[in-house]
Design goal:
With about 750 residues, this protein is of the alpha+beta class. It has three domains: about 160 residues, Aldehyde Oxidoreductase, domain 4, CATH 3.30.365.10; about 180 residues, Aldehyde Oxidoreductase, domain 3 (Alpha-Beta Complex); about 325 residues, 2-Layer Sandwich (Aldehyde Oxidoreductase, domain 4). About 25% of the residues lie in helices and about 25% in strands. An eight-stranded mixed sheet has the order 3-7-1-14-11-12-13-23, sandwiched between helices. The longest helix is centred in the last third of the chain and has 28 residues. The radius of gyration is 27 Å and the shape is globular. The protein starts with 17 loop residues before the first helix and ends with a helix. The relative contact order is 0.13. Bound molecules: dioxothiomolybdenum(VI) ion. The site of dioxothiomolybdenum(VI) ion has 11 residues, from loops.
């Protein structure tokens, strides 16, 4: 808190984009249309690994209304990818997963495009495929990419055969550490594919103009990355690509990378008409960017009184057929294996593996729930074995202010103990196994974690209009979190105006300043800081404008009450903006921010793209649930989240983020899984892919802790990703407390619980 009472930041104000969205008036990418546009549809592989021996589009092309059909032979052979350039626009001679794009059709209606896709004739020659990570690592396993060694990749990656990246972190002396342990525990955990579950399907509308420039309206989280990626696959200078995001209905990491934009752009280029493509649920569940499955093994040694001494951990992470963010996610899992715990001796390794399944991506807190499920399940197992209360065990081992993280970076603004105590108090921790509950067994569990606030630069243009309103142009999209409202609250605070005076525009890469994008819990944090910088610059501009008029020092000029003030002098902000338009081109500023990167110890880290974390957040989830003694069905009685948000810019939307993250985490914990059998997705529809609904959701009790970060606006920390990290572990721990059954494989379905209890003779 600075010297004055905040009027706007920290208040539960309504979202600046709220009315349009709740009334259905807001135009999302999938609502967007252009005159004369065609509809695109993709032909997808029905084989998991095969050579394409015949592709005949002649019958399809002859259908009335079909304008263009494209396959690999019709466009330049360009491979793209974030970490490894391993992915073609269309599979050329080989398909690597079932659902991979082989051809695309543009037609005058969606029905005609679908009919044309069905009329394309194709024949395959199957190749040996590999679906299991551990199989893929064996000598002689089929290679998903025979030519992996020829691919361009980030230099930090350590690749070989079916391994797209390998990272490690180590400190202390692992052998000596284990030698001094009282007991050593080994466990194995597995986690599944889960879809980000955004409401709006991925969409693109592409249109080319007379100069050979292309505009793409789409729902990407990263418009500037999208622009560069499209330039690459279209073989164009980036200046000829414009990306506009009219609106985006959720992302959660699933809209960070190209979805259908490249198909729409190529089809539009050849058709000489705009083309629109929208994904179906089936496409979402077979060719999107779900969370990667993992196999995690942990070996942890402790002293007799429950102090962590040594830990060895290994994560295998299934990228599917294309690496995308798999290598980076696998590396992030190393920080998750460390958890928010002091561990003097450690050795963590991660391996990202190719298999013949759909590609995967960075879903909200990439690596978070997987690593946390393993570590926090094992903490309970160890504590129970030693006869130490799991809360007490955690309190003995969590980070204190100034401790070093696994990369040797300093951990600051540490609030993990407070989050543990407050969540435990709220759930009534002392009574961990309250006993039978009418045919059900009841228990409580908790799990804690840490996370980072992602860096990257942000920029905003802020313009003060001659009617006194303020326009902010940002390169970051509002993906539904309310983050842009948070940034606007900060801007309003700094400029002395109301939130209602602020207008925000859509992102258009031709017009908006660069921003690293809506990802990594960074938007309100980073854009908010850019707004502070812009406001400071505007204050300077205004001081220099009115100072000479009033004969006062420019630095004495303050912005308050929608006005400009110095001593007894006052003008409204509107008057000053109008004055500036007459004398100096108007009041406009480009505010920028980039979070400083902390130093770390490079000798502890190998092949890690993000070794040191910035603006850490700390959080604990506590759950009280009941398990049906016959069916194994889990019902959640109470759910508590104690999360350190640094400074709650808008508590209402932070609570919204927490509720949503918990819903996604409950889905991963109990019911969601993209089920593969032999490379085929068995449940590629929203009936059989079971996301929790409102009926499945408990009320989420939120405790917001405000331990200020060094770099955040007013001390804020990233908020969006953390809430989906702990639900699987907290729920697994509560189920174990309730039933004595420990499930180490996600999702923890009723069936798994019931079968395990039968086996236990329970
Ligand atoms: Mo998030 S996975 O950084 O959108």
């Amino acid at each position: 808190m600075s010297t004055y009472e905040r009027r706007v930041a920290g208040k539960r104000l309504k979202r600046i984009d709220g009315i349009g969205k709740v009334t259905g008036k807001h135009v999302y990418a999938s609502d967007f249309a252009l005159p004369g546009m065609l509809f695109g549809k993709i032909l997808r592989s029905t084989e998991a690994h095969a050579r394409i021996v015949r592709l005949d589009v002649s019958k399809a092309l002859a259908l009335p209304g079909v304008r263009t059909i494209l396959s690999a032979q019709d466009i330049p052979q360009i491979l793209f990818g974030t970490a490894v350039k391993d992915r073609p626009v269309f599979a050329a001679d080989v398909v690597r997963f079932r659902g991979e794009a082989i051809a695309a059709v543009a037609a005058t209606s969606l029905e005609i495009a679908e009919a044309a896709v069905r009329a394309i004739e194709i024949a395959y020659e199957p190749l040996p495929a590999v679906f299991d990570m551990e199989e893929a690592l064996k000598p002689g396993a089929p290679l998903v990419h025979g030519a992996w060694g020829d691919y361009q990749a980030l230099p930090v990656l350590d690749r070989e055969g079916n391994i797209s990246g390998r990272s490690s972190m180590a400190g202390g002396d692992i052998e000596a550490g284990f030698a001094e342990c009282y007991r050593v525990y080994e466990h194995r955990f597995t986690t599944q594919h889960v879809h980000p579950g955004y409401t709006e399907p991925r969409t693109a509308i592409a249109s080319w103009d007379g100069n050979g420039d292309v505009s793409v309206w789409c729902n990407t989280q990263l418009p500037f990355d999208m622009k560069n990626m499209l330039a690459e696959v279209l073989d164009l200078p980036a200046s000829k690509v414009r990306v506009v995001v009219p609106g985006i209905g959720g992302g959660f990491g699933g809209k960070l990378r190209v979805g259908v934009e490249h198909f729409a752009a190529w089809l539009a280029r050849r058709s000489k008409r705009p083309v629109k493509i929208v994904t179906t649920s089936e496409e979402e569940l077979t060719d999107a960017y779900p969370r990667q499955p993992t196999v995690i093994t942990l070996r942890t040694g402790v002293s007799k009184d429950g102090i962590l001494i040594a830990r060895e951990g290994r994560v295998l992470l299934d990228c599917g057929a294309y690496a995308n963010s798999g290598p980076a996610t696998a590396a992030l899992a190393l920080q998750m294996l460390a958890g928010p715990y002091r561990t003097p001796h450690f050795s963590y390794e991660s391996v990202a593996v190719y298999t013949n399944k759909g590609s995967t991506g960075s879903f909200r807190a990439p690596a978070g729930p997987m690593g946390n499920f393993a570590v926090e399940s094992q903490i309970d197992l160890i504590a129970d074995d030693l006869g130490i209360d799991p809360l007490e065990f955690r309190l003995r081992n969590v980070y204190r202010e100034g401790d070093k993280g696994p990369a040797g970076d300093t951990v600051s603004s540490v609030s993990i103990e407070e989050s543990l105590r407050r969540a435990a108090d709220a759930i009534g921790w002392k009574d961990r196994k309250p006993g039978p509950d009418g045919g059900k067994s009841r228990g409580k569990g908790l799990a804690c974690s840490w996370w980072l606030t992602t860096g990257g630069s942000s920029g905003v243009y802020v313009k003060i209009n001659p009617d006194g309103t303020v326009t902010v142009v940002s390169g970051a999209v509002e993906i539904g979190t309310g983050a842009m409202t948070g940034a606007a609250q900060i801007l309003a605070e700094e400029l002395g105006v109301d939130l209602g005076d602020i207008n925000a525009t859509d992102v258009d890469t031709h017009l908006s300043p660069y921003d690293y994008g809506a990802q990594g819990s960074r938007t309100a944090f980073s854009v908010g800081n850019a707004c502070i910088a812009a406001a400071q610059d505007l204050r300077r501009q205004i001081g220099e404008l009115v100072g000479p008029l009033w004969n006062v020092a420019p630095e004495s000029v303050r912005l308050e009450g929608k006005g400009v003030v110095s001593g007894n002098n006052r003008l409204s902000l509107a008057e000053v903006a109008a004055l500036s338009q007459r004398t100096g081109g108007g009041l406009i500023s480009h505010g920028t921010f980039i979070q400083p990167m902390p130093t770390f110890d490079p000798t502890r880290v190998r092949n890690h793209p993000l070794p040191a974390w910035t603006s850490h957040s700390f959080h604990t989830h506590a759950v009280d649930l009941s398990v049906d003694d016959v069916t194994g069905e889990v019902s959640i009685n109470r759910y508590v989240v104690a999360q350190d948000v640094g400074f709650a810019i808008n508590p209402t939307y932070i609570e919204g983020q927490i509720e949503g993250g918990v819903a996604q985490g409950i889905g991963q914990a109990l019911s969601e899984e993209i089920v593969y059998e032999g490379g085929r997705v068995l449940n590629a529809n929203l009936t059989d892919y079971k996301m929790p609904t409102m009926m499945d959701m408990p009320r989420v009790e939120c405790i917001l802790i405000e331990k200020p970060s060094v770099n955040g606006p007013y001390g804020a920390k990233g908020v969006g990703e953390p809430p989906c990290i702990q639900p699987p572990a907290a729920i697994a721990n509560a189920i174990a407390a309730a039933t004595g059954v420990r499930i180490q494989t996600l999702p923890i379905t009723a069936e798994k619980i019931a079968l395990a209890r039968l086996k236990d003779g329970d």
